[in-house]
């Protein structure tokens, strides 16, 4: 199958839920999906999601992913608005930056609840909708911090992302017989609020690790993510797709 052009409607007819849709990558995912013909629910915290610069056609849903009931309800609300689900992108995350020895229980809880428990609950609740889709997929956005531990003091964040990488593999095995693909995707460093919260020395170190010497725009990351999640990426499941151009 040939790779579609940038102007083609290669997501036409697909129904996509994107969490963390008010962030840099989240917005790019929503815009790309909308441009390629998909129906999209953009989820995020209120009031951030209400004020996000998103396509008019995107359906916005506010959800606090630290609340288990809200995670589950989000899936049902999205499926109701879209009349089903084809692709779920667990993109929302919270960055906890503190020396490990000083981490408080609330900070550990925040990392676990948003970065790992929320995707787990969303994957559970999405199953009944995805099993009836034509080419269903779940994308869990992770980080190289989940592999290397990170270059800054982000142990809680790395812990939660490592858990999500492993969980993606486990769920891929269980959901595979039902035709549902599940994979993790590690994006490159982007000029996001999360990245800007890190000291410049750490951000520079991340940039230096990129062996290509340049960072792609969010739009390119979103396009590759959705290509892989669509039927065009039908062989990708149970793995981590690494877009960081990092040798480690």
How would you describe what is shown here?
The protein has 248 residues and is of the alpha/beta class. The protein has one domain: 3-Layer(aba) Sandwich (Rossmann fold), CATH 3.40.50.720. Helix content is 44%, strand content 13%. The chain has 9 helices and 7 strands; from the N terminus they run βαβαβαβαβααβαααβ. The chain has helices at 24-35, 48-51, 68-82, 105-130, 145-148, 155-175, 193-196, 200-209, 218-229; strands at residues 15-18, 39-44, 59-62, 87-90, 137-141, 181-186, 240-242. It has a 7-stranded parallel sheet, sandwiched between helices. α2 (48-51) links the parallel β2 (39-44) and β3. The protein starts with 14 loop residues before the first strand and ends in a 6-residue tail after the last strand. The model has no long low-confidence stretch (mean pLDDT 90).
Secondary structure layout:
Blueprint: E1 15-18, H1 24-35, E2 39-44, H2 48-51, E3 59-62, H3 68-82, E4 87-90, H4 105-130, E5 137-141, H5 145-148, H6 155-175, E6 181-186, H7 193-196, H8 200-209, H9 218-229, E7 240-242
Parallel strand pairs: 1-2, 1-4, 2-3, 4-5, 5-6, 6-7
Q: Main sheet, how many strands, which sense, barrel? A: 7 strands, parallel
State the name of the first-level CATH class.
Alpha Beta
Order of helices and strands: EHEHEHEHEHHEHHHE
CATH architecture: 3-Layer(aba) Sandwich
Q: What count of structural domains? A: 1
How far apart the termini lie comes to: 32 Å
How confident is the prediction overall: mean pLDDT? 90
Give the CATH H-level superfamily. NAD(P)-binding Rossmann-like Domain
Q: What class do helices, strands and sheet pairing give? A: alpha/beta
The radius of gyration over CA amounts to: 17 Å
What's the shape?
globular
Helix content: 40-55%
CATH topology-level name: Rossmann fold
Number of helices: 9
Strand residue percentage: 5-15%
């Amino acid at each position: 199958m040939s790779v579609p052009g940038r102007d083609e409607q290669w997501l036409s007819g697909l129904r996509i839920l994107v969490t963390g849709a008010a962030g840099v990558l989240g917005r790019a995912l929503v815009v790309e999906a909308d441009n390629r013909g998909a129906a999209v629910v953009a989820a995020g915290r209120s009031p951030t999601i209400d004020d996000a610069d998103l396509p008019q056609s995107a359906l916005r849903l506010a959800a606090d992913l630290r609340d288990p009931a809200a995670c589950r309800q989000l899936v049902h609300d999205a499926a109701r608005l879209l009349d089903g689900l084809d692709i779920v992108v667990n993109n929302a995350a919270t960055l906890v930056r503190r020396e490990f020895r000083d981490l408080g229980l609330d900070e550990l809880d925040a990392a676990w609840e948003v970065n790992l428990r929320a995707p787990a609950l969303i994957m559970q609740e999405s199953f009944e909708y995805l099993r009836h889709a034509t080419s269903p997929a779940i994308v869990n956005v992770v980080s190289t911090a989940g592999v290397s531990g990170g270059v800054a003091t982000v142990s809680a964040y790395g812990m939660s992302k490592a858990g999500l990488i492993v969980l993606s593999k486990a769920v891929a095995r269980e959901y595979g017989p039902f035709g549902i693909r599940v994979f993790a995707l590690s994006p490159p460093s982007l000029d996001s609020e999360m990245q800007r919260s890190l000291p410049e020395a750490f951000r520079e170190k991340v940039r230096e690790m990129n062996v290509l010497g340049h960072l792609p725009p969010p739009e390119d990351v979103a396009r590759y993510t959705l290509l892989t999640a669509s039927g065009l990426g039908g062989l990708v499941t149970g793995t981590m797709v690494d877009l960081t151009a990092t040798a480690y």
